[in-house]
């Protein structure tokens, strides 16, 4: 995980900021977390900040301390004692004109409360904090990393267009959001940005203890930003944060506040509420292209100025990160530091949020049957007798090199599958495997041969350990007639049944020699000639009752170990944990997108070590070439690896499903959409 940081952020350190009277530094030294790569912030100028904040307000932030000193006022007390908000009848322009006649007037006009103080280098810290966020946004797009952490200090989510409040001066989250929306990667070759593009949809998830009133105000009428906030209520800022605030104008419906009691909210209640909020139909339908998280760690119960009294388990923050990552569905996530004042715990809580190799997986994230067009909440929610559709999992994920510091974004269409490994006949595959899960696991090939007995893959790789695998693909590997590739699998062999049900399963595609090519200079991965698109479909039944992580999944819904053991003996429990899925999704909850007239190769796999049932893959709206025959159905045994070619020539949305009726009813269905793309020549390519 990359972390962006600037030492200039520590220049703003007014002693009066913490209410318990004890001076504390802003952050722990983050370089002690060796798994994080610390990146120094770059300078992107004032322009992105001025896309959010008014110019007169930024001028105030830059020069107010100097003006205060020039008026002969005390150097350690530059803050307001009277606020312009007391005037309700006078025209705002007149108030502003009068306020600008003195530094005290400006402080009262541009700040909202006594938490906003200024020191000699406060502006340098404010500016550095914004540049940290902008650097993180640029890095996120440049590297295509799935997540990055902007360690911003001072925080920002209480600041609006022209008002500082709650320790916040520049709204870092808003500046980052506009930056992600308005600029393409080519604009950032120079630090001065020059060209705006169509705005992208951005989801802001605010998990600070306090409501982000400034962020809400900035985007309240904007339909391109969906703002979600979980916060203590009633609490600072006292006048905003109710669930009645839903946006205005074109932004109506794009603001979701979830108030929580600071005295009665527990770890379990917080996580359940966050999960429900992230599953909100309007939020899911919004289909964000990027996610920005206002990461407040002041929800921790020991926080000296905030704290949810029932948030006492550090694991809660790891689960928060997993829930947000799950909701992002493979889209990039940028974590922005907001509140958090328990200095001795701040680093640990941040690491827990960001480090989630083990993940929480929801087989039905939309909570909706897109075939019958009806809600599934009543059928799928956990209860005293069933665990529902959300489970603790372990997945294979890929990194750019052996430092395991920069992850390669996971293709969301693969779902629970690991990254696809591609090789040609005669190749050697070398893999460095690092186990970050809590149990011993491995990465073992299915039908590939180790180079020699002393290099056999390790069957048990303990937590934190590495193992180097080397697989040899025979040069005379057989291929069906008129078919340039075959598909096999890899999985963990530590506990084969438990590990595959836990999610440790991926695919290997073997090609005829000379099939793979580099699509563009500098590409990281090769692609096969003569194929425009490869689609991978795992049609399988996961038995979560025989997963390595069953106990953890039960703990998530509040089951005790005794209750779990009781349920395991109950008739029908195992059936309730059998997930009939395609790539980890049920009931058409993940669409496959295809272009009309392209050459599409489907790899259809069935692999269920504990549920021995055949499947029948059926495509509506198209036929495929399969072993020399034109078909729309391919039969699968309990373990099958099949390849078929399609040229989609029928526009529209079509069903792809298992034709075994009971499997269809249990959710083994998805949809694929065929769209005709018309190139006019005006696209600027």
Automatic annotation (TrEMBL):
Keyword check for Zinc: yes
Keywords assigned: Hydrolase, Metal-binding, Zinc
Cofactor: Zn(2+)
Sequence ranges assigned to domain Plastocyanin-like in this UniProt record: 578-675
Domain of life, source organism: Eukaryota
Positions of transmembrane segments: none
Molecular functions per Gene Ontology: copper ion binding; histone deacetylase activity; hydrolase activity; oxidoreductase activity
Keyword match Metal-binding: yes
Record-linked InterPro entries: Cu-oxidase_C, Cu_oxidase_CS, Cu_oxidase_Cu_BS, Cupredoxin, HDACs, His_deacetylse_dom, His_deacetylse_dom_sf, Ureohydrolase_dom_sf
Pfam family, one: Hist_deacetyl
GO biological process: epigenetic regulation of gene expression
PANTHER family: HISTONE DEACETYLASE 8, HISTONE DEACETYLASE HDAC1-RELATED
Family membership: Belongs to the histone deacetylase family.
The protein, known as: Uncharacterized protein
């Amino acid at each position: 995980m990359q972390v962006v940081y600037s030492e200039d952020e520590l220049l703003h350190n007014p002693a009066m900021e913490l209410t318990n009277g004890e001076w504390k530094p802003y952050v722990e030294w983050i370089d002690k977390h060796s798994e994080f790569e610390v990146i120094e912030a770059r300078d992107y100028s004032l322009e992105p900040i001025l896309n959010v904040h008014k110019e007169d307000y930024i001028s105030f932030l830059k020069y107010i301390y100097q003006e205060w000193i020039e008026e002969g006022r005390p150097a350690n007390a530059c803050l307001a004692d009277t606020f312009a908000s007391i005037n309700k009848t006078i025209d705002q322009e007149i108030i502003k004109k009068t306020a600008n006649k003195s530094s005290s007037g400006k402080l009262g006009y541009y700040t909202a409360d006594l938490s906003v103080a200024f020191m000699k280098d406060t502006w340098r810290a404010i500016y550095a904090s914004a540049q940290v966020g902008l650097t993180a946004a640029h890095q996120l797009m440049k590297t295509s990393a799935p997540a990055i952490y902007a360690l911003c200090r001072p925080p920002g989510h209480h600041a609006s267009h022209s008002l500082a409040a709650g320790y916040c001066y520049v709204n870092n989250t808003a500046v980052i959001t506009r930056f992600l929306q308005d600029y393409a990667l080519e604009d950032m070759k120079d630090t001065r940005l020059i060209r705006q593009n169509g705005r992208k949809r951005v989801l802001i998830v605010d998990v600070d203890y306090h409501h982000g009133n400034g962020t809400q105000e900035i985007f309240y009428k904007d339909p391109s930003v969906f703002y979600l906030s979980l916060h203590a209520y009633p609490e600072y800022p006292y006048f905003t944060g109710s669930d009645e605030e839903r946006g205005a104008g074109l932004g109506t419906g794009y603001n979701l506040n979830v108030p929580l009691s600071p005295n009665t909210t527990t770890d379990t209640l917080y996580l359940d509420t966050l999960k429900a909020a992230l599953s909100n139909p309007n939020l899911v339908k919004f289909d964000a292209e990027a996610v920005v998280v206002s990461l407040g760690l002041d929800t921790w119960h020991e926080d000296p100025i905030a704290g949810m009294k029932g948030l006492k388990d550090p694991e809660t923050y790891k689960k928060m990160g997993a829930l947000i990552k799950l909701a992002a569905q493979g889209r990039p996530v940028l974590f922005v530091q907001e509140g958090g004042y328990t200095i001795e715990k701040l680093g640990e809580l941040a690491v827990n949020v960001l480090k989630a190799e083990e993940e929480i997986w929801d087989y039905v994230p939309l909570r909706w049957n897109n075939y019958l067009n009806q809600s599934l909440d009543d059928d799928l929610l956990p209860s005293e007798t069933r665990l529902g559709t959300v489970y603790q999992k372990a997945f294979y994920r890929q990194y750019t090199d052996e430092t395991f510091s920069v992850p390669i974004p996971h293709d969301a269409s693969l779902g629970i599958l690991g990254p696809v490994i591609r090789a040609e006949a005669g190749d050697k595959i070398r893999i460095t495997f690092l186990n970050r899960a809590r149990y011993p696991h491995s990465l073992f090939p299915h039908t590939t041969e180790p180079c020699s007995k002393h290099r056999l893959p390790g069957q048990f790789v303990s937590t934190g350990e590495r193992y180097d695998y080397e697989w040899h693909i025979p040069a005379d590997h057989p291929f069906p007639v008129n078919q340039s590739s075959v598909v096999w699998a890899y999985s963990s062999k530590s506990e084969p049944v438990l590990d595959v049900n836990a999610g440790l399963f991926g695919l290997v595609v073997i090609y005829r020699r000379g099939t793979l090519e580099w699509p563009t200079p500098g590409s990281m991965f090769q692609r096969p000639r003569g194929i425009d698109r490869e689609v991978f479909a795992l049609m399988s039944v996961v038995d979560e009752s025989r997963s390595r992580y069953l106990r953890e999944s039960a703990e998530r819904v509040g089951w005790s170990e005794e209750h779990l053991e009781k349920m395991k003996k109950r008739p029908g429990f195992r059936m309730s944990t059998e997930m009939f899925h395609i790539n980890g999704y049920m009931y058409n909850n993940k669409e496959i997108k295809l272009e009309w007239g392209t050459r599409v190769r489907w790899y259809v796999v069935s692999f269920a070590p504990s549920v021995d049932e055949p499947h029948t893959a059926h495509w509506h709206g198209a036929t495929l070439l399969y072993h020399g025959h034109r078909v729309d159905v391919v039969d699968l045994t309990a373990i099958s690896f099949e390849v078929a070619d399609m040229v989609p020539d029928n526009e529209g949305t079509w069903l792809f499903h298992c034709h075994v009726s009971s499997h269809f009813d249990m959710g083994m269905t998805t949809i694929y959409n065929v769209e005709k793309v018309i190139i006019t020549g005006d696209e600027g390519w």
